[in-house]
Write a structure and sequence with these properties.
Strand content: 35-45%
Structural class: mainly beta
CATH topology of the largest domain: Jelly Rolls
Shape: flat
Number of strands: 50
Distance between the termini: 119 Å
CATH architecture of the largest domain: Sandwich
Length: 726
């Protein structure tokens, strides 16, 4: 008995070892493939256990492109059995056709009928790849390199014929691409139902709805909408809505209209409002479907809501860097923002600034927070500025807040600014209207209790000011103070209009302590963001920063040290990574509860060190207490060399402090002496202090000359450093 194979199956059997190529590139659309005749598909089967077969398989009802098993014509397959070796084997086979999509035909649709039985590990997937890339049987689609576009998900468990429909991206217009059907069968599960495709249809049209829509120029009441040119378009329709589906009527419809260019300037919008924009193209003889909702949020203003870029229901996007400036309409008003919810991903932050510019030290850096978190402008312009930055990782739900702008009472003190202006002095300025002079300005060390207008001495010092400014003198460098300003708004001198307490710290100087903003008695505050430069008080000196206690929240609150006068100087880095909530700060900050960092010694020509401390909103620890020393710093060189330290001017009777950094292996100095020009001992030097890698020496008053400082360690080894006293 003779069995007659379908002619296409027979043809395939002649080429099972490689690739069967039938017809050229498809250029005419719409195009369809029904497999009743030979179609221009390339079948990449190699020697895989399962095969693509074009023909009329038993049970399919009509010819189709189906998966067969080991040269059979039945539309079923089993565990992959390699026909050459026999053992089970995974199958990956491909069927593809090349399509030349016409220029400007942006509307591209693909449909096909499919039936895929079997387990989820056995599936069909549709892809678009570059036309110059050829799949290889047995290889994963990842081997196709970049430029692979997944058209469908993995298709499986479709036991009856079903029509699938996919919209291909407009970017394919004018390109020749390869439409690929990929079949995968693992080696488990035994015999499985069939897999087949039929009635493939590709249609193109120059009439397409707007795509790649960009929104820019967002303000409190306007936005610019743009999209790429669509040559076949006569006009574009739009609906802007605050609620409801497109075409659902007046409820929620903000505006609608038609334009004849690929740009819309939306005006007269409401501040702090979440909008959904819908677009469609009018091609004279046809209208496209509406686009999906294109959403945006207008900038906030007084009396409006304040949302993140994702609006009240969605998440904000990746890699956002957006600034919001919220200002009152009147000069006597102040902006207030109260948050009802805050949810950020790790690494995302919202910076808060007083005034209309996102510069200087932030008022706060928010990485998370609880409902009720509020900010009020203390700036003379009454503005608050928010800068939101998100990374490319996980994102939170964002924030929701309400904005209000209230008139400051005629006697409200606001905009208090404290600026150091020299050793022990600060200039204090503020704003207030309707006050009867003078103002009472009271300050005291951290922890003091402000007095009343009749009892000003409750721990603080009171000064009277005839203008909204005053100079405070006699302050302790490095100390933390609090300040209150009281305005007299009635003729009888009732100072009952009080400012909020303003905390400030003078820059530390040589010989003074340096603490966090909580001082030595309190924890540092939340949202602290402070940069402090510490410089020596004499030419040639260097700053040495020695910590006696250090406790900041591990992984979150970081203390950075820079070898120079500002944060552009080299970082003296720890081995710690970037803070979890603020990874943009980078690694190298110091944190923790057990290890005390330092001491830190400046090697910069200026002799300065700069510190930067950032805390988040969550846990606050005791912070730090450090001592600032300044002196000449010498670094002994290799054996047989030494380094000159120039002491200038000549030390007074108190003598000169010299800091010597010790070479590796020298840990304890037993003796220090100054040698004269002839090598004789001129004087024995007092050892003031010694750290792990340095020692501090007190030199006596010496006549101008060249000397040699000799240090002897606990093992009798000597280190020599030349000193030039001028």
């Amino acid at each position: 008995m003779t069995t007659r194979l379908h002619p296409l199956v027979f043809l395939l059997a002649l080429f099972v070892g490689g690739v069967l190529r039938a017809q050229p590139i498809i250029t005419g659309f719409p195009w369809s493939a029904t497999f009743d005749t030979i179609q221009p598909f390339t079948l990449v089967n190699g020697m895989q256990p399962n095969y693509w077969v074009a023909g009329n398989a038993a049970g399919n009802g009509s010819p189709s492109l189906y998966i067969g098993n080991n040269f059979t014509i039945g539309n079923e397959y089993w565990i992959g059995i390699d026909p050459w070796t026999g053992p089970s084997a995974l199958t990956r086979v491909y069927a593809y056709v090349d399509l030349a999509i016409p220029v400007y035909h942006y509307a591209i649709d693909l449909s096909f009928d499919v039936r895929v039985g079997g387990e989820s590990n056995d599936n069909l997937k549709v892809m678009i790849i570059p036309a110059d890339v050829t799949p290889v049987a047995g290889y994963n689609p990842s081997s196709l390199g970049p430029g692979v576009l997944d058209v469908s998900p993995s298709l499986y468990d479709i036991l009856q014929w079903q029509t699938m429909h996919y919209v291909l991206p407009p970017s394919l217009a004018g390109r020749t691409v390869r439409l690929v059907f990929h079949w995968r069968n693992d080696w488990s599960g035994g015999a499985q139902p069939g897999a087949a495709i039929d009635n493939i249809m590709v249609t193109t049209s120059p009439c397409i709805a707007p795509f790649a829509v960009a929104i820019s120029g967002i303000t409190t009441n306007s936005a610019v909408i743009e999209w790429p040119s669509i040559p076949s378009a006569e006009a574009f329709h739009y609906e802007l809505r605050t609620s409801g589906a497109v075409g659902s009527g007046a409820l929620g419809l903000a505006m609608e209209g038609m334009v004849d260019t690929e740009q819309i300037l939306l005006q007269d919008l409401a501040p702090g409002t979440f909008y959904s924009l819908f677009l469609r193209t009018d091609c004279t003889d046809s209208l496209t479907a509406w686009t999906v909702a294109i959403t945006f949020v207008t900038d906030p203003a007084c009396g409006s809501s304040f949302f993140d870029p994702g609006g009240p229901t969605g998440s904000y996007g990746a890699l956002i860097d957006r600034t919001y400036v919220i200002c009152p309409s009147g000069t006597a008003e102040a902006t207030q923002v109260v948050f009802s919810s805050i949810s950020f991903g790790m690494g995302d932050r919202l910076e808060v600034y007083d005034g209309a510019v996102a510069s200087g030290t932030p008022k706060a850096i928010i990485t998370a927070g609880a409902p009720g978190l509020a900010f009020v402008s203390d700036h003379s312009d009454g503005c608050l500025t928010f800068r939101f930055v998100s990374d490319g990782q996980w994102h939170g739900a964002g924030w929701q807040a309400n904005v209000s702008c209230a008139t400051r009472s005629g006697c409200t003190v606001w905009g208090v600014d404290v600026e150091p202006v020299g050793a022990g002095s600060v200039h204090v300025g503020w704003h207030c209207t309707g006050a009867v002079m003078p103002f009472a300005v009271e300050h005291g060390p951290l922890g003091w209790t402000p007095g009343t207008y009749l009892w000003p001495g409750a721990g603080g010092t009171v000064n009277l000011a005839d203008t909204a400014a005053i100079m405070l003198n006699g302050l302790q460098p490095g100390a933390v103070y609090e300040l209150e300003i009281r305005a007299n708004c009635v003729a009888n001198g009732e100072y009952d209009h009080r400012s909020l307490l303003t905390r400030f710290q003078l820059p530390p100087e040589c010989g003074q302590p340096f603490t966090d903003f909580g001082g030595s008695l309190e924890s540092y505050p939340a949202y602290e963001s402070r940069v402090q430069s510490i410089c020596p008080d004499a030419p040639g000196h260097a700053v040495i920063l020695t910590f006696t206690s250090f406790a900041t929240e591990p992984w979150y609150d970081a203390f950075y040290v820079f070898d120079g006068p500002d944060t552009s100087s080299p970082l003296i880095a720890s081995g710690d990574p970037a803070p979890l909530t603020m990874p943009n700060l980078g690694p190298g900050g110091w944190w923790g509860l057990t290890d005390i960092p330092g001491p830190f010694v400046s090697t910069h020509s200026s002799g300065c060190l700069t510190t930067a401390f950032i805390s988040d909103h969550m846990v606050q620890f005791d912070g730090w207490v450090a001592q600032v020393d300044c002196g000449f710093v010498g670094l002994p060189g290799p054996a047989g060399t030494d380094q000159v330290i120039r002491c200038q001017p000549n030390p007074a009777t108190a003598g000169e402090q010299v800091i010597v950094r010790l070479p590796d292996g020298v840990t304890l100095i037993r003796m220090a002496e100054v040698l004269g020009a002839c090598g004789d001992v001129a004087v024995t030097v007092l050892l003031k202090d010694q750290g792990a890698d340095r020692c501090a020496l007190q030199l006596p008053l010496l006549p101008p000359a060249m000397y040699v400082l000799r240090l002897v360690d606990d093992r009798g080894r000597s280190v020599h450093v030349r000193i030039m006293v001028q």
